Amino acid sequence: MPVNTQAFSEADGQFTSFRHAAFPDHKIRVKSDVTLCDNTVKQHVGYLDVGTDKHFFFWFFESRDKPDSDPFLLWLNGGPGCSSLTGLFMELGPCRMSENGNGTVHNDHSWNNKANIVFLDQPVDVGFSYGEGNEAVSNTKEAAKDVYAFLQIFLQTFTKYQPADFHVTGESYAGHYIPQIGATIAAGNAKAEQVAHQRGLAQQSLRPEDLVTIHLDSLAIGNGLTDALVQYKYYPDMACDTKYGPVLTNEQCDQMRGKYETCASLVQSCYKWKTPFACVPATMYCNNAMIGPFQQTGRNVYDVRTDCAPGSKLCYPILEDIEAWLNLPAVQSELGVDRAYQGCNFDVNRNFVMQGDWPLPFQQLLVPLLESGVRILIYAGDADYICNWIGNKAWIRALEWSGQDEFENAEDVDWKVGRTGKVGGKVRAHENLTFLQIYEAGHMVPYDQPEAGAEMIETWIQKKNFA
């Protein structure tokens, strides 16, 4: 285990704990003898502990290719309140849940084919993460601080990943998380580089209290909720879109369009004041007006082509299979966990809503990142309703940055997936901003289109062109 001598460790039962002087209230507990899911690669599982009250579970897999030099990815699922292990076992991890739900099968299209990847359950009380006392996190900004502390301790513990390009990836409500995490990393990097400059020392000469520079190369958001003001406007267009057959009638869609002015006024107040008093009413009204009519049909909000599976909490039976498998005593014993796994915690979701976090404007955080050279990929499966591609493309086009006009005038061109030999979508790009519409995929692109999802991420992290 390559450990930085600047980080200090201690035995903690079946875990080894590592701390960082800059974060006296934080430590990570690591267990590295795990062989579940993919026994061909090195794994680390454990917790980020914040004081005695907050405990964030993580699961790390080395790259199947060149772990010493391949990029490093963080993956986050959304909700808010849903476990990133959904991404691991349903979408892009080294294994997937088997059809009968009693084990896992190898995933040939895992994103760790060409990258080291960590799945993090956050905020607390999500997945295997847990809180004690009154330390629940109910807003994106606070959640990002804990993620940044985790990355600092992890990278100063496992030093070989420090030089790697770092990518923050995720989907859905991660359209909130990822811009905030990117901004937090950028601020931390500026602080680290200022200290190093003042001391006239390279990063290799770190003191225990120093921050490591995280080589933030890109953000990649899949079917995200990022700019509610723009995105709410396009729900009627998606509900009556003809590609997969309209779900609602033209009359119903027109009624939804008639409610957008009120929705927009409420969201604009939220954007201005950023308080629960301003933002909670926007969430309640807009969700009822723009999402409610679709939900009443019984169709799957994550895939307009299908109905929700009967009896499934979130339309997909595989989610119950994942919960059942992760709650097996033998699995929990190997992971070193001692609590029930819950795929989505609706109390966490409700807390974020009641804190007014849902309609906040996170697209604004992307502009300074773009201007500093961070690459940003927004991708969207075009069968998703809840965070549909039409709204995602619209907010990207509306984003005010130095390349806005050029991006607006750029062409949409076909993206051919080499793995399948088919056109897998359309891409529009200018400089370091890219939008990718992916055909025949819903909210969870790697689940519906695993070949396209894998090729997309490998093309992106290897800095190749999509077209």
From TrEMBL:
Q: Could you tell me the keywords of this UniProt record?
A: Carboxypeptidase, Disulfide bond, Glycoprotein, Hydrolase, Protease, Signal
Which enzyme class, named as a word?
hydrolase
UniProt xrefs under InterPro entries: AB_hydrolase_fold, Peptidase_S10, Ser_caboxypep_ser_AS
The keyword Glycoprotein belongs to this UniProt entry's keyword annotation: yes
GO cellular component, as recorded: fungal-type vacuole lumen
Q: Does the keyword Hydrolase apply?
A: yes
According to the UniProt entry, its GO molecular function terms are: serine-type carboxypeptidase activity
By sequence similarity, the record places it as follows: Belongs to the peptidase S10 family.
> What is the protein's given name?
Carboxypeptidase
Name its species: Caulochytrium protostelioides
